[in-house]
């Protein structure tokens, strides 16, 4: 819709004024000086995550809850001040944008894009192709449909062109394909897989997205890629094969839904091996859940659990910082009240997975990220 995204931000010279960063000219610390508009740059704290991350060219993102943005003042302020990239938690999903076939409702997503532009944030588009949150006219479960194979193919093509063109120039990274493999590394037998008779839909989706917006970085996004294993290996082979076919894939998104119940993954080596294929990599949906009380879903059962959570957050951020191709680090929201975790993991109950508490006060998990970024000046500058 508007200006194309220009490659990565270079931190500009900044001066400290009364605890706020003041910016040279009209450019903010994490915007590209060339593309910045003449409107006054919003100030944000010098010790905010976004200001600290800008010094190494890293974008710190958050998933955004469309109902809170604009209506909840504290939520809105934190979104603007702390993060330099935003992802619509739900507002860009197919069920949201085309619940009625042929009728597009872009309002919530457009509001987020406008907010991002005003606050000098980049936007991760999430997601063009998934087996969840599909409109009912297409599929109620992602695995069955009343449409013919040819109709499914035509619907996907139309959807990708309509959505990517609508946001053309506004999206930094698109999650083109989300969660196409199961944890055994087998392709999910979704309506897409069935319509194409295999995984050929993935290459088509990337090609269509690239035609619709040649400047957007196109990502494959999935969970549990953090651990070396059948799934991570399957996605690695997929990327190799897409590259061999000259399919326009530019990055791999590691969702990063972690839990203190499980050991910490060999994340950095997985980031490195995908980067060695010439891919950008990104942490796209990070949260670190722990077991919590059934009647207080964000209160850990074990009083020591927050220390383990801090360690997982810190190690994940440091893994990204250490790999130059890792261009953004995005927690999946920031306030525990809005997290998907307690509703999804209820037996046993898990929660407390984000970096701000239910009252939107920063937790120890926020502070470790802040410290790691403050101490990250030796990390390679991306861009
Ligand atoms: O956080 C999202 C939640 O509000 C939705 O109800 C849910 C529907 O499946 O999707 C959640 O986000 C998911 C993301 O889009 C893809 N990776 C897993 C995320 C957590 O389920």
Automatic annotation (TrEMBL):
<dbReference type="InterPro" id="IPR017853">
    <property type="entry name" value="GH"/>
</dbReference>
<keyword id="KW-0119">Carbohydrate metabolism</keyword>
<feature type="domain" description="GH10">
    <location>
        <begin position="46"/>
        <end position="372"/>
    </location>
</feature>
<protein>
    <recommendedName>
        <fullName>Beta-xylanase</fullName>
        <ecNumber>3.2.1.8</ecNumber>
    </recommendedName>
</protein>
<keyword id="KW-0624">Polysaccharide degradation</keyword>
<dbReference type="GO" id="GO:0045493">
    <property type="term" value="P:xylan catabolic process"/>
</dbReference>
<comment type="similarity">
    <text>Belongs to the glycosyl hydrolase 10 (cellulase F) family.</text>
</comment>
<feature type="signal peptide">
    <location>
        <begin position="1"/>
        <end position="24"/>
    </location>
</feature>
<keyword id="KW-0858">Xylan degradation</keyword>
<dbReference type="InterPro" id="IPR001000">
    <property type="entry name" value="GH10_dom"/>
</dbReference>
<keyword id="KW-0732">Signal</keyword>
<dbReference type="InterPro" id="IPR044846">
    <property type="entry name" value="GH10"/>
</dbReference>
<dbReference type="GO" id="GO:0031176">
    <property type="term" value="F:endo-1,4-beta-xylanase activity"/>
</dbReference>
<dbReference type="Pfam" id="PF00331">
    <property type="entry name" value="Glyco_hydro_10"/>
</dbReference>
<keyword id="KW-0326">Glycosidase</keyword>
<keyword id="KW-0378">Hydrolase</keyword>
């Amino acid at each position: 819709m508007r200006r194309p995204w220009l490659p990565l931000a270079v931190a500009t010279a900044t001066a400290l004024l009364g605890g706020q960063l003041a910016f040279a000219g009209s450019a903010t610390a994490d915007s590209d000086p060339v593309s910045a508009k003449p409107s006054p740059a919003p100030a944000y704290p010098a010790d905010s995550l976004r200001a600290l991350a800008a010094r190494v060219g890293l974008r710190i993102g958050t998933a955004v809850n469309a109902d809170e943005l604009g209506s909840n003042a504290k939520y809105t302020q934190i979104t603007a001040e702390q993060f330099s990239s935003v992802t619509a938690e739900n507002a860009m999903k197919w069920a949201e944008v085309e619940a009625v076939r042929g009728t597009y409702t872009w309002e919530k997503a457009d509001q987020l894009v406008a907010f991002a532009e005003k606050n000098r944030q980049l936007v991760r588009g999430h997601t063009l192709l998934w087996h969840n949150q599909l409109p009912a006219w297409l599929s109620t479960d992602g695995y069955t449909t009343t449409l013919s194979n040819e109709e499914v193919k035509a619907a996907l093509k139309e959807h990708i062109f309509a959505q990517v063109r609508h946001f053309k120039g506004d999206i930094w990274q698109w999650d083109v394909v989300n969660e196409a493999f199961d944890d055994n590394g087998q392709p999910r037998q979704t309506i897409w897989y069935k319509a194409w008779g295999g995984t050929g839909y993935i290459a088509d989706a990337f090609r269509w997205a690239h035609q619709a917006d040649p400047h957007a970085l196109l990502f494959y996004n999935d969970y549990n890629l953090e651990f070396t294993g059948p799934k991570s290996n399957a996605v690695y082979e997929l990327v190799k094969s897409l590259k061999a076919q000259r399919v326009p894939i530019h990055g791999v998104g590691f969702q990063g839904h972690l839990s203190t119940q499980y050991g910490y993954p060999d994340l950095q080596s997985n980031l490195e091996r995908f980067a060695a294929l010439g891919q950008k990599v990104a942490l796209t949906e990070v949260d670190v859940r722990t077991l919590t009380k059934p009647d207080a879903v964000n209160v850990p059962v074990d009083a020591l659990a927050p220390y383990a959570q801090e360690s997982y957050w810190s190690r994940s951020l440091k893994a990204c910082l250490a790999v130059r191709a890792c261009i953004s680090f995005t927690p999946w929201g920031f306030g525990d009240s809005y997290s998907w975790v307690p509703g999804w993991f209820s037996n046993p109950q898990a929660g407390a997975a984000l970096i701000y508490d239910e009252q939107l006060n920063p937790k120890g998990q926020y502070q470790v990220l802040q410290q790691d970024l403050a101490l990250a000046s030796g990390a390679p500058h991306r861009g």
